Amino acid sequence: MNINLNILHWVYLLFIFFIVGTMVRKRDTTLVCLIGVFMLGLLATGSLSQSVIGVFSSLIYAIKELMGTILIISIVYAMSQVLQDTGINEVMISPFTKFIKTPTLAYWVIGILMMLISLFFWPSPATALMGAVLLPVAIKVGLPPIGVAIAMNLFGHGIALSSDLVIQGAPKLTADAAGIPVADVISASIPLVLVMGFVTTLTAFLFLRHDMKKGLLKIKAGDFDSNSEDQSNNKSFKRILSTNSKRILAILIFILFTIDIIVMVLANLQGGDATALIGGTSIFIFTLITLLAYKNEGLEEITEYLIKGLQFGFKVFAPVIPIAAFFYMGDMGFVSVFANVLPEGSTGLVNDLGVVLAQTVPLNKAIASITLTIVGTITGLDGSGFSGISLAGSVAKLFATAIGSGIDTLTALGQIAAIWVGGGTLVPWAIIPVAAICDVSPFELARRNLLPVVIGLVVTTMVAIFLL
Q1: pTM listed for this prediction
Q2: Which residue ranges does UniProt annotate as crossing the membrane (predicted)?
Q3: 228 has pLDDT over 50
Q4: Of 64, 82, 217, 374, which has the highest C-beta tally within 10 A?
């Protein structure tokens, strides 16, 4: 298959380097991406007006592709806020406090619980919940606040967010950029996530236990119980729902999501269908609880919570949309935005580059895997984790075309590296919420995460090489 590269291919590749360079310098990539789309449009159409139109159209295209993901995250966030404001979240998690008897149990129970909650509600809401309820319990049994922060961070923003098995926001972005089904990315990510999660959390725990035995970590004095109590009573309507009502609703939520999982398995629901099922269930839960908690004001409060959810969703994805718009131009998004102006015989700019790369550069599985880990790490330096994973998917497609296989594994590897670094467990400005909840320095938390995460990435990359 002979592909003749033209100016479009080289400009697209040049702007990929510009975007990576901008991320390395810890600057936002929005302007670079928009200029990239404009230049591609100008070269493809030769029309200034069509190029300007194309910039706007590319954003519309990206929003259309991502709207389902934005909406599910917004709805889940709205639901989590209702649970937090009514105190149902505390009831849901309180049974697990009886298992926390030692510092070791505190680390693993908090971590695993954080992971499970984050899979359904995302780490941001889970962080507030875990900090308010389980931080005082962990401190009482001897686990320092930095240990709680490490557990919450690695299990929530690391394992749960990098896999994103339920909400599927991350695999949606990388799969679209790579041009493969979301289910393929999810399937390929499971063994890599397990390896990364096991190695990282175990290594971090061993380092933590070593420092605790040497007396290097001390529990800070602080009345966490009273703080938690104040937080639980600062909303007057928390007292509207009785304790029994909260318990019944907590059990109902557990049953509903369990039914969702069963339905997903039996009906083989994946991707958008699975996300829609979770979204519909979340809407039902948050509207029911809001009506019960606010009674006569429930109708208005439903709207208020939905507004808060949508604000959160678009805040998270605001930096993602421009970079996704650019990387969609590497595939069939280019045809949708600028009509059918691809070079004759082209199947997409990224595909073309991959074919030429395979014909000219002796790539192998090891080089491809290492490169994807590096690309993912670089894209995570902006502290978002999500804003650059489209780049990881695009590069995975490029390299997989060159080596002839492994696009799903490479895509999953890039996704994992990007989110573990920027989603975040290493970038200090990405872990401020966890650090603030646990009253520790974000720089200290990032420093303690550094070696375990680096070791985890090395081992995961080696596993990926064997899976290709």
Answers
A1: 0.72
A2: 6-24, 31-53, 59-83, 104-122, 185-208, 248-269, 275-294, 306-329, 417-438, 450-467
A3: no
A4: 82
